[in-house]
Amino acid sequence: xxxxxxxxxxxxxxxxxxxxxxxxxxxxxxxxxxxxxxxxxxxxxxxxxxxxxxxxxxxxxxxxxxxxxxxxxxxxxxxxxxxxxxxxxxxxxxxxxxxxxxxxxxxxxxxxxxxxxxxxxxxxxxxxxxxxxxxxxxxxxxxxxxxxxxxxxxxxxxxxxxxxxxxxxxxxxxxxxxxxxxxxxxxxxxxxxxxxxxxxxxxxxxxxxxxxxxxxxxxxxxxxxxxxxxxxxxxxxxxxxxxxxxxxxxxxxxxxxxxxxxxxxxxxxxxxxxxxxxxxxxxxxxxxxxxxxxxxxxxxxxxxxxxxxx
Length: 310
Fold this sequence. Notes:
Oligomer: single chain
CATH architecture: Up-down Bundle
Function: Putative odorant or sperm cell receptor.
Radius of gyration: 21 Å
Pfam family, one: 7tm_4
Family: Belongs to the G-protein coupled receptor 1 family.
Order of helices and strands: EHHHEHHHEHHHHH
GO cellular component, one term: plasma membrane
Structural class: mainly alpha
Helix content: over 70%
Strand content: under 5%
Subcellular location: Cell membrane; Membrane
């Protein structure tokens, strides 16, 4: 990566400088991260090997859980390790890589959530055409387009980051590298850079949130024409999706759709959507989705039965 300054490394200040609080952060976020990875891994393995979860909804859920676990991995391990480190040093290249990964995986989550909403819309509002519209080939193409769109978004973000000159200090008042805290250290007028950031990340977050909420309003409105059993099942799935959308998008909109001003709660808001929300997502899908829970039970039953026969 081309460096436009003399800075070769940054120091992450993290969430706190208090030694006791650092130990608490280590324990809390280690548990959250392990819970995130285990939960998403269970969903991925269940969908991969279960014969009953072959619908497009679970195809998209597979990739969403994959992106979710990787998204958390882009920030959580460093936060956990840095909580016990005397110096939280991150090199310039590592910092730029983290910026790219954070936006690439975060954007991928957004696009997959949109695809999941589209799948529910077709399934509920156009059930007779659902098998034709949501074919396996179509779903695969949509996922590929989501990866491509996320890559383009991340390239745009990293280009903005690489254009920032740094001449000191190199203290990042955050637990990870992102464009907002890096703008605070840049030795230049960052108004235009922030404007581009808002017009990219901010517009993606805001427009996607509006599109998703409108789509689910339409879906929920159409449920009045379904049977009581079908309405209950669809409502349970859609409610989980809506909760995930609100938990993920509200903090993102708060961070990426405002002038270049930092607030004391910025780091905690970022922690919530980069580490907290990925931890809650598997719980929302496994605890509220009867099909996923039944598929998990069957897989574990088969596994235990197979092991006992050996």
